[in-house]
Every structure is written in structure tokens, then in C-alpha cells.
């Protein structure tokens, strides 16, 4: 992964954008579409790069502000060097080297693998909600606890509560260890009470002690896509709906995870497991197509075929996505997700 900093082209060389007000070019938001600067996509095509996604990305370069182009051209270092050289001949550019920071996600690329985390973002969240001096806890939710609507509880500011949940949801991009607890409190954003706010603050207290945690993908790790899926039957005390959860592994780390209450009321544990497995299967098919598109075909598998294997409770990694686990089990599964502290890999 690398970054290229593209400086704006001189104004005299940039054609004036023309507003086309034809009916076909007006999007659903009511904003008219501007003709794009044709120099960028033409230069990309001249380099022999036919990737439509890259062409579209580079073609949207705006002449006024500088633009950062995240150009993913695979593992071919020779092609990467040639690509940078050719682009620098066509545009005023600065090579920022290996990617280190992107949309709040910190990336540490080492010879042993790649580590991603949201250390700065987590620290900013704690400051924003005045939890920087709070006492850390070892897990984001009280083991074995259940949360309900708490209809008789003291109401709290719903806007403030939604801000906390929103920030935590973005943090789950690199933190599968808080996925279940964040998903749980997000169910009560309409009329939150003190009970729900305390549950949210506990997650923040957990972050206080694990701010630098992230996922480490080891070089030369397992190349086969492996998924675990599970359900917590009738886990919701009020509507008896179950919770589905899955986690996908690749190269010794979690690459995709989910925790979500099922949309229907299942009548048995078997049905609940079937719903969870079906959701996971859809994700598996999609991910295998993505891997195929980037030339990482799964060996020994047939397109459209998924092998189901029974997993004993002690080895069920998806438990982290469906229930509040005891501390020992929680820490064990967190480690299996590939999660480490920043200091352990730096």
C-alpha cells in the first residue's frame, strides 16, 4: 500500500468545468454533474492501467485542492516504481512512501506483516466524552449481563448517547473485540436511559486500557479464507429474537466480522443457527469473489460451494460476536482475532 500526493494543476491548463443540465445527468440529490478533468484518466490510460475503479478515482481529481491518491497496484514492485515515475512526469507530485494513516486508521507496515489500529481516534473519543481519566476495565461488557429497554429508568440526553454510539461504531472497523457490545447498545438509541449510558461508558473505560490495540496480519500466514458463525438463541429478553455473529480470518487475522440481531423470531436453536449460517454464507460468497478479483483464488474450493464443519463450543471464535463472555474466554478469543497492542509489534 502506498500514497501519492497529487498537487493541483495550474489553473491555466485546467478547462473550465461545464454544467450539463440535461435531465439524464441530474442525480437523485438534485445536484448537477460536472464534466471531469480529462487529463488525469487519459494519463492513467496511457500508462496501461485499465482498472475502471482506479480510472474513476483518479478522474475525480478536483483542480483546486490537493488530492491524495491511494493507488493499489498489487505486489509488483517494478510496476509500482514505473507507475510513480510516469505519474510524476505528468503531474506535480510528492511520493509519501508507504501508507501510514488513512481515514482515522493507522497502518504500520513491517517485514513481518501489517498492523492496523485506530489509536489516535480512540484517544480522541475518550477526550471528547471526558473519559480520559476514567478507570480502565478488562472487558467492554459485564460477563453474562443482559440489557433491556429499561422503560422505568431515568432518561438521558439521546443526542449525547447517539454521539457515543456513532463514534464507537466507526471504531469497530479495526476492533472486533467491541463489536458485540456496541451492537447491543445501538439497539436503544431512541429512548436511552441511565442503564444504557452506563453500558456505553463501560465500553469507553475498556478503550481506556486498550487504546493501542489493533489487528496484526502476519506475512506468510494462512492464505485460506476461514469463517466462524454462531447465534445466541432468544438472546433478547423482550422480543425473544436471536443474535447472529460471524468472523472471517485470513493471514492470521480477522478481516470481516458482524454482530446483529436477527430480523425474525426463530422457534428453535436449529433455526437460529440456520439463519446465522445463511448470513455468513452470503458474506463468504461475496468475499471469495473479491479475493478472486485480486488474484487470490481460494485453492481446493469450488465456486458457489461452501463446506460446513461442526465446531465445538470451546473453539467457536464467533462467540465473541454473540454474547457477553467471561474474562478468560473473552481475552482468548480477542487474541485469536489477531489483536495485539501497538507496542508488541512496533
Structure commentary:
- By secondary structure, this protein is an alpha+beta fold.
- The protein is built from 10 helices and 13 strands.
- The chain has helices at residues 39-46, 52-59, 77-90, 119-128, 158-171, 179-185, 194-209, 269-293, 327-336, 342-345; strands spanning 2-6, 19-20, 33-34, 67-70, 93-98, 101-102, 105-110, 113-117, 213-218, 226-232, 243-250, 253-261, 339-341.
- Strands 6-7-8-9-13 form a 5-stranded antiparallel beta sheet. It has a 3-stranded antiparallel beta sheet with strand order 4-1-5, covered by helices on one side.
- Strand 6 (101-102) and strand 7 (105-110) form a beta hairpin.
- Helix 1 packs antiparallel against helix 2.
- The chain is globular.
- Mean pLDDT is 82; it is low at 3-38 and 47-68.
Question: What percentage of amino acids are in beta strands?
Answer: 15-25%
**Helicity range:** 25-40%
Number of β-strand runs: 13
* Structural class by SSE content: alpha+beta
Average pLDDT figure:
82
CATH fold-level label of the largest domain: Nucleotidyltransferase, domain 5
The total number of structural domains is 3
Largest sheet: 5 strands, antiparallel
- Shape descriptor reads globular
Indicate the CATH architecture of the largest domain: 2-Layer Sandwich
Main β-sheet, spatial strand arrangement: 6-7-8-9-13
Residue ranges: pLDDT <50 for 5 or more in a row? 3-38, 47-68
CATH class category of the largest domain:
Alpha Beta
> What is the string of helix and strand elements?
EEEHHEHEEEEHHHHEEEEHHEH
Terminal CA distance:
18 Å
Total number of helices: 10
Amino acid at each position: 500500500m502506498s500514497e501519492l500526493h497529487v498537487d493541483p494543476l495550474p489553473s491555466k491548463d485546467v478547462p473550465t468545468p461545464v454544467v450539463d443540465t440535461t435531465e439524464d445527468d441530474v442525480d437523485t440529490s438534485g445536484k448537477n454533474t460536472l464534466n471531469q478533468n480529462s487529463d488525469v484518466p487519459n494519463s492513467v490510460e496511457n500508462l496501461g492501467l485499465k482498472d475502471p475503479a482506479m480510472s474513476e478515482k483518479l478522474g475525480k481529481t478536483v483542480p483546486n485542492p490537493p488530492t491524495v491518491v491511494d493507488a493499489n497496484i498489487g505486489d509488483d514492485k517494478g510496476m509500482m516504481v514505473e507507475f510513480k515515475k510516469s505519474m510524476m512526469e505528468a503531474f506535480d507530485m510528492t511520493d509519501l512512501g508507504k501508507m501510514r494513516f488513512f481515514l482515522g486508521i493507522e497502518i504500520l507496515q513491517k517485514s513481518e506483516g501489517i498492523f492496523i489500529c485506530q489509536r489516535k481516534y480512540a484517544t480522541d473519543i475518550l477526550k471528547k466524552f471526558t473519559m480520559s481519566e476514567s478507570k480502565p476495565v478488562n472487558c467492554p461488557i459485564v460477563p453474562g449481563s443482559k440489557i433491556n429497554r429499561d422503560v422505568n429508568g431515568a432518561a438521558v440526553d439521546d443526542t449525547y448517547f447517539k454521539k457515543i454510539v456513532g463514534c464507537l461504531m466507526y471504531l469497530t472497523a479495526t476492533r472486533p473485540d467491541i463489536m458485540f457490545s456496541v451492537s447491543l447498545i445501538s439497539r436503544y438509541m431512541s429512548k436511552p436511559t441511565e442503564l444504557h449510558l452506563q453500558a456505553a461508558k463501560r465500553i469507553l473505560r475498556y478503550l481506556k486500557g486498550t487504546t493501542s490495540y489493533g489487528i496484526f496480519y502476519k506475512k506468510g500466514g494462512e492464505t485460506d479464507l476461514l469463517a466462524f458463525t454462531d447465534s445466541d438463541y432468544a438472546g433478547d429478553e423482550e422480543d425473544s429474537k436471536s443474535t447472529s455473529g460471524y468472523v472471517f480470518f485470513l493471514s492470521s487475522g480477522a478481516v470481516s466480522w458482524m454482530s446483529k440481531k436477527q430480523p425474525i423470531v426463530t422457534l428453535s436453536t436449529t433455526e437460529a443457527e440456520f439463519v446465522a449460517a445463511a448470513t455468513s454464507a452470503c458474506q463468504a460468497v461475496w468475499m471469495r469473489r473479491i479475493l478472486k478479483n485480486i488474484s487470490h483464488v481460494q485453492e481446493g474450493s469450488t465456486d458457489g460451494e461452501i463446506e460446513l464443519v461442526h465446531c465445538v463450543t470451546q473453539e467457536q471464535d464467533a462467540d465473541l460476536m454473540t454474547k457477553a463472555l467471561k474474562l478468560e474466554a473473552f481475552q482468548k478469543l480477542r487474541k485469536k482475532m489477531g489483536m495485539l497492542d501497538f507496542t508488541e509489534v512496533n
